[in-house]
Design brief:
55% of the residues lie in helices and 11% in strands. It is mainly α. Strands 1-2-3 form a 3-stranded antiparallel beta sheet, with no helix packed on it. The longest helix has 12 residues.
Length: 118
């Protein structure tokens, strides 16, 4: 049976005999990232029209985390990076879900996507 582990930096490794082996070489990983760049936290926050404090509160992280991400001192990893990627595509739906606004979520999910054919 193959055992896999998701690392904090987003890599997936296979566990064999107590050692970790990457599933893809590093060169392939960095090449793949160029096609889907990591979302810029500041751009996402500004698009949402939120201050750093408001954005941090909605994500449930300390405001210092947002500041560090925006200033490039740290980068979002793992689940945070995944959440930011989803926010980049559907910010209204994500913020409604995080706030527990079920009626708004239902309306957003039921609405046809922009550019889709009905």
């Amino acid at each position: 049976m193959q055992r896999l582990r998701l690392k904090a930096d987003g890599r997936i490794v296979e566990l064999r005999d107590g050692a970790e082996f990457p599933l893809a070489p590093r060169v392939a990983e960095s090449a793949g990232r160029g096609s889907d760049p990591e979302p810029k936290v500041r751009d996402l926050r500004l698009r949402a029209g939120l201050t750093q404090i408001e954005f941090a509160a909605r994500l449930g992280v300390p405001v210092e985390t947002i500041r560090n991400w925006e200033q490039g001192k740290r980068s979002p990893r793992g689940p945070a990076r995944a959440l930011l990627t989803v926010i980049a595509h559907t910010p209204d739906l994500v913020f409604a879900a995080l706030a527990g606004r079920r009626e708004e979520i239902s309306k957003l999910v039921a609405a046809p996507a922009i550019g889709s054919e009905c």
